[in-house]
Automatic annotation (TrEMBL):
GO biological process, alphabetically ordered: DNA recombination; DNA repair
Coiled-coil region: none
Name of this protein: ATP-dependent DNA helicase RecQ
Keyword field contains Amino-acid biosynthesis: no
Species name: Psychrobacillus soli
Pfam families: DEAD, Helicase_C
GO cellular component: bacterial nucleoid; cytoplasm; replisome
Helicase C-terminal domain boundaries: 216-371
Length: 471
């Protein structure tokens, strides 16, 4: 047994590597920059965890979401690793100071792009040995950095002081243009690239065009109450997550809602209940999903057109991690295109916002928080006209992206084939249950419930207790 397999067995309890894992790990240990694109469920966490046990120094993992960080920390602790910490807003000032003083005692250090701008943190990092740096969910660099969280773009400047170490970028979806953004922002030097097929044969795609929102609601309630999960229902509105959950609870479904405006503790509780099987369904915005380790999700339902094909693939990719047949269903109307564009543009600076930002020294008081944060970054690096041109270009790209997804749903061509083509991949083998335009037998994919859900006598007792405590 070679050294890598021995660590795999002793530390992680696996007998063999999945396709691509060993090659990626070998390149990381050799000190090479690596871009690895593997679908959800292919074991991306192992790629940054295992090499850490064969190299001196700490592993710094830049992660996009607090819930994702906490979940990854808990995973490592369950494996018996005590030298792990997440440095984020969960920690008080005193706790952060204590962590900074003892940073050299940690093997795995999780943090956010925003925390990389903290001088005290960087001072502490510069005093320890770093084995390598990980950009988890690296597609966020391109997907969020330019128009939502510019601290992703500031990673390039931050990395200049740590370029003696190599960088591992991990994601489940990335086009060739996104890969270019990742390489550029992470200052990669001739990186090794591993791109696994994004095709998930165990996920069937279903596109359903309906007339209006009432028809959508009837379809969704009918599908969920007549078939079994576990499943995730994605919607764009926080109010809708609560409405769907309420309607389904009335019908005896073990369900909860999840969105970004909930208290962090409540979000963590819902996530844990779903992962442990106490909840059968989650009604959520796209705030839910990253870091979810649940192998047996059987259904993903969208009641809208997502704002990008990459987002859609990330979300449906949470199904069938165990390889068992599952289905992703998307309901849409002709007016959903405009609604998707509106959602995508909510925090975007208008030309008037850009003019104001370049005239004022204090835009935090004059513009919404996200818009101000975006413009503060671009004001540092571009002229007013360049910023205006940039956001006109981004706006046009987003509109084109939404239209492209709408076209995929509406035309007569295989959905799977078109989605793969978007990522420069060809469909080589068509599964038995492919999509609603090719071959799809719903009753063979989803189990029908053995009894009407209205006759179910009780919900999970923890859900009832939570509801009472919150009322």
């Amino acid at each position: 047994m070679d050294k890598l397999t021995k660590v795999l067995t002793n530390k992680f309890g696996y007998d063999s590597f999945r396709e691509g894992q060993k090659e990626i790990i070998e390149h990381v240990i050799a000190g090479q920059d690596v871009v690895a694109i593997l679908p959800t469920g292919m074991g991306k966490s192992l790629l940054y965890q295992l090499p850490g046990y064969l190299m001196e120094g700490a592993v710094v993992i830049v992660s996009p979401l607090l819930s994702l960080m906490q979940d990854q920390v808990e995973q490592l602790k369950m494996l018996g690793e005590k030298r792990v910490v997440a440095i984020n807003s969960f920690l008080s000032f005193e706790q952060k100071e204590m962590v900074f003083r003892n940073l050299s005692t940690y093997k795995f250090i999780f943090t956010s792009p925003e925390m990389l701008q903290n001088e005290r943190f960087n001072h502490a990092l510069s005093s320890i040995r770093i084995a390598y740096i990980v950009a988890d969910e690296a597609h966020c660099i391109s997907q969020w950095g330019f128009d939502f969280r510019p601290d992703y773009l500031r990673i390039a400047k931050w990395l200049q002081q740590f370029r003696q170490t190599n960088v591992l970028a991990l994601t489940a979806t990335a086009t060739s243009n996104v890969v270019k953004d990742i390489k550029s922002t992470l200052l990669m030097r001739e990186p090794y690239e591993y791109i696994h097929s994004l095709d998930r044969p165990a996920i069937a795609y279903e596109a359903v065009e309906v007339e209006n929102t009432q028809e959508k609601l009837a379809w969704i309630l009918g599908r969920i109450t007549s078939t079994s999960g576990p499943g995730i229902l994605y919607t764009q509105s926080r109010k809708k997550t609560e409405m769907y959950a309420n309607e389904l609870q009335k019908r005896g479904i073990r369900v909860a809602y999840y969105h970004a405006k909930m208290d962090q503790d409540d979000r963590i509780l819902v996530q844990q209940q779903f992962q442990q099987g106490q909840l059968e369904w989650i009604c959520a915005t796209n705030a839910f999903g990253m870091g979810i380790h649940k192998d047996n999700i059987r259904q993903i339902i969208h009641d809208h057109i997502p704002t990008s094909i990459a987002s859609y693939m990330q979300e449906v990719g949470r199904a069938a991690r165990d390889g068992v047949q599952s289905i992703a269903s998307l309901l849409f109307t002709a007016t959903d295109v405009e609604q998707a564009f509106y959602v995508a543009m909510q925090d975007f600076p208008e030309e008037a916002d850009i003019r104001l930002a370049y005239k004022s020294d204090n835009i935090q008081l004059q513009l919404p928080e996200t818009t101000a944060r975006i413009l503060e970054y671009w004001k540092e690096v571009l002229t007013e006209q360049e910023t205006t041109n940039l956001f006109q270009t981004i706006k046009q790209k987003k509109w084109t992206e939404i239209l492209r997804l709408y076209t995929i749903l509406q035309n007569g061509v295989c959905i799977r084939e078109q989605l793969l083509h978007y990522f420069d991949e060809q469909l080589t083998t068509r599964p038995v249950h492919c999509c609603s335009k090719c071959s799809l037998h719903i009753n063979e994919i989803i189990d029908n419930r053995k009894q009407p859900t209205e006759n179910r006598e009780e919900l999970d007792w923890k859900m009832q207790l939570d509801k009472l405590l919150r009322s």
